[in-house]
Every structure is written in structure tokens, then in C-alpha cells.
Specification:
single chain; 245 residues; mainly alpha; Arc Repressor Mutant, subunit A; Four Helix Bundle (Hemerythrin (Met), subunit A); 2 domains; 3-stranded antiparallel β-sheet
């Protein structure tokens, strides 16, 4: 069984983290801080799919005033993370198998081409960074540390997206990754699945490092298609994602 890192923090710890970010010389706006923290709570299932919340509770939890919390929830509503129902409050949007497959379909289209662009445009610095990320992923697998592996998975895809050199695609991909992140926390993934992911990352990396654009694109497509099938299989077996037409 994979070990998960300590995923829960007390409300006081959450507030402390947000407050410390406010004192940073490069502090983000309160709206952005509220958005980031609420999204983190949703993605990591501290706020569960289908759960009803209200602005005051969230404001108290994260230690940020109601106005920026309200603005953050509006942003999250536009992105599909929450549903704002008049006179009923705010509902954390449930996931469905359809949602996951739709996001992955978009990722296949976008990331396949981003891998192609990255192979054409990446410099030595990017290749070295990807190699370090892969090494970190291998260490996480050896330690059976699920959370650490998922951080390296995200870093790997983000670095390739950055190397592709298209800011619009990068922004779009960031939103897609955020939408799919919660899926990882809905079930226990088998170590074999993650080892296969590591092998697929390595195949993408080797093609990219060799400046093989078509090879990098093909390897990325295979990687995400495999992830798609794993999610279908795990969802059917566990019954933890609803299939809705």
C-alpha cells in the first residue's frame, strides 16, 4: 500500500500559512490567496465533493475576509470547482467519470502537441531539469510515497509545458491539471500503476532529449491514454466516480 503524506492541516495552521504569505515582499492579493487555499482544500478533498459550504465558514477556516473569499468562490465557480445555488449556498462540485474523461481528452490534444513543441524548443537546462524531476520520481517510488510522486508527476508535465513556449497553452493546461488533481485523491492507486507512469515519463524524456518531436508526441499520447484507461478501470472497480450521461 502506498504511503500518503500528512494531508490534513488544522484551521489554525492554514491561517498561519496564509498570513505568512501576506508578509512576503512578493505577496499575492487576498483574492488570489483565498482562491489558492480554497482550491487546495477542494483538490485534496478537505472539502468533499457534494459538501455544502458558506462564505463565513470558509473565511473563518482560512483566515481571510469574506469579500476576497466571495471573489475567490466566484472564480472557482467559473472553473467548475463549486456550484453557487441561490438561497441554498455553495456546493463542492462532485466528480463524475465523464468529467475525468473529458479533461483527459483535452489533455491528450494539448499535451501531445506541447511535447512536440518542447522537443523542438527545449534547451539543455530544460533537459537537465526534467532528468532531476525523473530522479525525484524514482526516489518517491522507492519510498512508496504517493504524495511525493504526484508532486514530481505534476512538475514533469509543467516543465514540458513551459518548454513548449506557448503561454496560452500553458495557462490552459494548468486549469486542466487542477481539474484532474482531485481524481488522484479519490482512490488508492497501485504501485504498479505509478511505476508504469514513471516508465512512460522516461520514454517522453528520452524522445525529448533526443530532439525527436514525433517520438515525444507519441510517447505523451500513450502516457495520457494509459492514464485514461487506468481511471476508467479503477472507477468501475471502486465505484467512487459516478458515470453520468
Amino acid at each position: 500500500m502506498l504511503k500518503r503524506g500528512h494531508m490534513a492541516r488544522e484551521a489554525g495552521q492554514i491561517r498561519g500559512g496564509v498570513q505568512s504569505s501576506r508578509s512576503s515582499p512578493e505577496r499575492v492579493s487576498l483574492k488570489q490567496a483565498a482562491y489558492d487555499e480554497i482550491k487546495r482544500l477542494i483538490v485534496t478533498l478537505k472539502l468533499r465533493p457534494g459538501e455544502r459550504i458558506n462564505e463565513q465558514v470558509i473565511s473563518d477556516l482560512i483566515g481571510i475576509g469574506k469579500t476576497p473569499v466571495h471573489q475567490a468562490l466566484q472564480m472557482l465557480s467559473a472553473q467548475g470547482f463549486v456550484e453557487i445555488v441561490p438561497r441554498k449556498g455553495i456546493i463542492i462540485t462532485p466528480d463524475s467519470l465523464n468529467d475525468a474523461l473529458t479533461v483527459l481528452e483535452a489533455r491528450i490534444v494539448i499535451e501531445t502537441e506541447m511535447a512536440r513543441f518542447a522537443a523542438q524548443r527545449a534547451d539543455t537546462t530544460v533537459v537537465e531539469a526534467l532528468e532531476r524531476i525523473l530522479s525525484g520520481g524514482r526516489r518517491a517510488l522507492d519510498a512508496e510515497d504517493f504524495d511525493a510522486f504526484m508532486r514530481h508527476d505534476r512538475m514533469f508535465h509543467e516543465k514540458i509545458a513551459e518548454a513548449a513556449g506557448n503561454a496560452i497553452l500553458l495557462e490552459t493546461l494548468g486549469a486542466l491539471h487542477a481539474r484532474i488533481s482531485r481524481i488522484w485523491h479519490l482512490r488508492s492507486w497501485k504501485l504498479d500503476n505509478l511505476q508504469k507512469t514513471q516508465e512512460e515519463h522516461t520514454a517522453v524524456f528520452r524522445a525529448l532529449a533526443a530532439r525527436n518531436a514525433s517520438g515525444a508526441a507519441d510517447a505523451m499520447r500513450l502516457h495520457i491514454e494509459t492514464l485514461r484507461q487506468n481511471i476508467v478501470d479503477a472507477s468501475i472497480a471502486a465505484g467512487d466516480l459516478a458515470f453520468t450521461p
